[in-house]
Please model this.
Amino acid sequence: MVYLQDFYSESGFRRDNSLQKTQDFDSVVELVQKEYPRLPAYNTKVIETILKLTEGHKLLNRNLLDVGSGYGYLSTEAVQHGYDVTALELGAAERIISEQMIGLSPLPVPFEDFETDLDSFSVILMTQVLEHAHDVDLWISKASNLLTNDGILAIAVPNFRNIFRMIIQENDPFICPPAHLNFFTAKNLSLLLQKHGLKTHDLQYQSMMPFSTFEKRLSGLGTKGLSAAYGMATYAQEVFDILHIGMVINIYARKIEAP
Model:
């Protein structure tokens, strides 16, 4: 556990791309926009899905916990929609960028050690973080305890049934220990949530292949050729998502009041 904390404190969850260790806000924004042009729409969709699922539940507060908040893009979207955000992030560079982005200072605390009152949050986000957890059973149990009744746990994890894993097997880039320790399908993740009193209410698939993947392998195509190739790949990824073999599972589960 100490090893994992040190591993992520040094360079966050993005050890293999050009964002590693950067602390310059403008550089991060520019690089993220280039690498993941679909990211703003994705962030908006996540928060809008949460708003839809919490609509009409008048007893829910506006407290949101973002576990593994990264550079703070989802936290920013949540703040803009009126949520009071508490964020946890071990990566030092990520915390600096998050503070520059919205003035939010994530806590450098592992979720296992985070302490607060039970039933504190109406929403908990775990985006691209549960695959890194040492004990997923503990994480989901704790999340359930921290949620108010009818609260929403929103999780995004790599899809172990994605098209690329099925084709290239163990060479799938998501199979990368010690960074990724856990692997999920929609079924086994739903069963894990159900075990802890969380009922799945929405399931989405989202693929966002980084632009650098094409830039490295197809550099001979030139700027226009790269843009065309990326556009075709984006269309293909949308088809994969419809077929439920996209790269990432987005699952939204509601805490059911205990009898």
About this structure: Confidence is low (pLDDT under 50) at residues 2-9, 12-19.
